[in-house]
């Protein structure tokens, strides 16, 4: 008796554990492809093939391709948003702690900067409106408020405009990952493992001096 075709068996509704695994795989593959090839150039069929799934499963779990991209961003950025929200309830937050949190998020999703540049930052980015309305207020948009609180409490310099300070922290934390190919090839700085730890220490020292009161 021939074995059932794997692709065909996936058309049925999987159990909860299998569904979680399948969705996680689809999200990871979609994140990689959207970042590397761009949203417009990536098809649901290609994502399905690389996920060992099928287009029907992707539509079942995520709806259309745009909804899948939203889910990719939410999954990658929600832990960062939760961390920033937790900082808002803490008594004291050092700028270096914000840098560490940003860099930890990017290190675990190295394709995220390219995805955001392609689909959020550049003109015509398909996620610009969604990001500005739903994600930005919980991410970088929340940082000026944190810094303003630290200024009022005398823990960082009053010469630091909160919005400029937030932009500075995001730039220092994220830019090294954006230039990763050049950093690795030209500077021999590899954005993973011990190198990221060392870079975090250096940036933290720089930030502590620059933001000191």
Provide a descriptive summary of the structure in words.
By secondary structure, the chain is mainly α. The chain has two domains: 1-63, Arc Repressor Mutant, subunit A, CATH 1.10.10.60; 73-211, Tetracycline Repressor, domain 2 (Orthogonal Bundle), CATH 1.10.357.10. It is 70% helix and 0% strand. It is built from twelve helices and no strands. The protein has helices spanning 6-9, 16-37, 44-51, 55-62, 65-88, 95-108, 112-121, 128-135, 143-152, 162-178, 180-186, 194-211. α5 runs antiparallel to α6 (95-108), α6 packs parallel to α10 and α6 runs antiparallel to α12. It starts with 5 loop residues before the first helix and ends with a helix. The model is unreliable at 1-11 (pLDDT under 50).
Q: How do the helices and strands line up, and which of them pair or pack?
A:
Elements: H1 6-9, H2 16-37, H3 44-51, H4 55-62, H5 65-88, H6 95-108, H7 112-121, H8 128-135, H9 143-152, H10 162-178, H11 180-186, H12 194-211
Provide keyphrases for this structure.
disordered N terminus; 12 helices; globular; Arc Repressor Mutant, subunit A; Tetracycline Repressor, domain 2; 0% strand; 213 residues; mainly alpha
Describe what is shown at a glance:
The chain has 213 residues and is mainly alpha-helical.
Tell me the structural class: mainly alpha
Write the H/E string, N to C: HHHHHHHHHHHH
Strand tally: 0
Q: Quickly count the domains.
A: 2
CATH architecture descriptor name of the largest domain:
Orthogonal Bundle
- The first-level CATH class of the largest domain is given as Mainly Alpha
Mean pLDDT over the full residue set: 89
Radius of gyration equals 20 Å
Low-confidence stretches: 1-11
Helix content: over 70%
Q: Count the helices. How many?
A: 12
CATH homologous superfamily heading of the largest domain: Tetracycline Repressor, domain 2
**N-to-C span:** 76 Å
- The CATH topology label of the largest domain is Tetracycline Repressor, domain 2
Strand content: under 5%
């Amino acid at each position: 008796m021939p074995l059932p075709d794997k692709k065909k068996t996936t058309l049925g509704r999987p159990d909860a554990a299998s569904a979680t695994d399948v969705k996680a795989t689809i999200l990871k593959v979609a994140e990689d492809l959207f970042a590397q090839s761009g949203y417009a150039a990536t098809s649901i069929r290609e994502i399905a093939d690389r996920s060992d799934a099928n287009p029907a499963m992707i539509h079942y779990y995520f709806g259309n391709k745009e909804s899948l991209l939203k889910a990719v961003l939410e999954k990658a950025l929600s832990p960062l948003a939760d961390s920033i929200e937790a900082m808002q309830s803490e008594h004291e937050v050092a700028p270096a702690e914000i840098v560490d949190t940003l860099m930890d998020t990017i290190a675990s999703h190295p394709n995220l900067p390219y995805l955001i540049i392609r689909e959020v930052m550049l003109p015509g980015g398909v996620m610009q409106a969604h990001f500005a309305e739903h994600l930005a207020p919980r991410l970088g948009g929340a940082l000026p408020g944190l810094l303003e609180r630290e200024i009022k409490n005398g823990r960082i310099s009053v010469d630091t405009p909160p919005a400029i300070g937030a932009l500075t922290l995001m730039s220092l934390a994220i830019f090294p990952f954006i230039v990763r190919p050049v950093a690795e090839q030209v500077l021999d700085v590899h954005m993973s493992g011990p190198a990221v730890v060392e870079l975090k220490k250096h940036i933290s020292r720089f930030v502590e001096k620059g933001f000191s009161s």
